[in-house]
Amino acid sequence: MTAETLAPAKEIAATTLPTPQGELRQVPLDEIYIGGNYRLSMSAPGLAELAESIKNSGLIQPATVRPLAEPIEGKYYALVAGGRRYAAHRLAQLPTITCNVREMSEQQADEARLIENVQRENPHPADEAAAVGKLSANGDSHEAIASKLGKSLRWVAQRKAVSQLAAGWLKMLRADKLTLGAAEELARWPQSVQQRLAAEHIKDFGRGSVYTESYVKGWVSSETHLLSAAPWGLADDKLYPQAGACLKCPKRSSCAGVLFEQPG
Question: Which CATH class is domain 9-109?
């Protein structure tokens, strides 16, 4: 039995019940619109186990939906949180699901969905990156995102960088063919380098293999140059006035300490 199930569904009243956040209702699955839920990674065996548990023992943690001002595709509610629970009900061929119905704006619902998915147990790194990227696109600062998710600034900055990986690498991360460490290493490099490495390496990699951080570091070693070995003065801001002194260059990894941990 999973943490998401306990009380038999038949014991939950079909009538509306007040809750501190909204109203508890039995909502037909066919009336719930699924859209904008970034979570794409669901374990098929885990989903089947949850479906069987819900069918036998019921649902303890309701899903969250919001009423739609206008129906979408004949649906009257939009799913906010509980995509896996909804999918399990579909799999179990149950007609309704217990939902907390809350009045929320589309932006509030989007933010609640992102936060709920990141805070669940063992979220996929690609889902975490997508959530941080979306919250950032909505205008939240790194500090605000860290506060909302209960994460460190470094965690937020790294997931934000991963969210901006070239499409080919993001696909590999979601397919578990690229480790998180490798994704973070790739995220240090411009899109042009990421895309060239993808063209050179993805198609030739063995089936069943996984790209690790050590692989990526080996690939980009030729792109790395020790600034201390440069034959010019690093503090010289007149050598190339448009760029300024090397020591003040914002593209140096040492200038992004919150993103990349520096050697001690």
Answer: alpha beta
